[in-house]
Amino acid sequence: MYIVTAKEMYDIDHFIMHEIGVGGRLIKGNAGRAINVKIEDSLDKTN
Fold it and tell me: Using an 8 Å Cβ cutoff, are 23 and 17 in contact?
């Protein structure tokens, strides 16, 4: 996993949307699901 700044994430999102053609809603939806999985995994490890 990489940690990026807000500016770097903006640039990554912009590239994906405008150069590759993936919609912003899809990008954000995938990000939300990935975060949810990480949270669930960390909760499973503590219980």
Answer: yes
